[in-house]
Description:
It is a single chain. The chain is α/β, with parallel strands linked by helices. The protein is 39% helix and 17% strand. Strands 2-1-3-4-5-6 form a six-stranded parallel sheet, sandwiched between helices. A six-stranded parallel sheet has the order 9-8-7-10-11-12. Helix 2 runs parallel beside helix 3 (72-81).
Amino acid sequence: xxYYIEIGTINKAKEDIDEICRREGFVNLTRKNFGSGGVGRxxxxxxxxxxxxxxxxxxxxxxxxYPMKKFYKMACTFAQCKGAKVVTIIHDLGAFRRHKLTPxxxxxxxxxxxxxxxxxxxxxxxxxxxxxxGGIHCLQIFDYLSDKTASTYTKDTxxxxxxxxxxxxxxxxxxxxxxxxxxxxxxxxxxxxGFEESENHCDRLHYHGFIASDDFISNVKADFGLVWDGxxxxxxxxxxxxxxxxxxxxxxxxYLRAGIPVIVWSQAAMAPFVRDNHLGLVVDxxxxxxxxxxxxxxxxxxxxxxxxxxxxxRLADGHYVKEGMRAADKYLx
Length: 333
């Protein structure tokens, strides 16, 4: 039998993986929700983890999402005491993103799992360099479940439309307030919260407010979606920018699920996937966007658009997580 512990947080990536587990016939060990407050969440996780001892048997598989706060090591230990195997899919690495753990501390936690599903080859190599010894599979990109149909789009102007969705606060993405220096031959539509309109000095930047993700998929029309973080137009900088070097941002999946090709930073871990699958542009700086768009032909763009539509179908079906599950099954046989 295969089991999982429902995460129960307001996080699209984690909710989608819970749903994929359900679709694949995994049994949910989380049977009772004690509430959304801190104590309630603690009790829900504690009871769910303790059910491992009364439910799992030798040869079973427990599927976990990491990080799992205080309970990850306990869940792994309980499962292995019962003779079960543990498969873990990683969302965030505490040592790399928040620096709350050293790489050695995090590796000791992850050593408890039998098989890891990681974001990409960069993350895989990082973990192997820090001593991980179990089976490992590269997800490539996070799935994005939605029953919505992407809007039909036909390019009918000479000006390229680029969209950016997410946190628009200056503290997080100051580069958005510097685009007047480098937008050339394209315009940007912004969707999200926190945009300081009084600080916008670029007439090619258009703010549309917050939009629900399903409404975005159904209605937003754009030529490209930008995946960028930090305060600079020359590179993705700061902690968030550095994290792009090892992380698969969910924003990439979001744009592609909407059928929108992407623009990613050349140093991002997602760049090889975008380049190899011809899903958009890979740029060194924001200024490079205009230069690449000027040389992009109609036929080239149409092929990129078709590739994005094909990937959207895979993301909607949970293709990449299911591939990881099959890799784990094969390894653990």
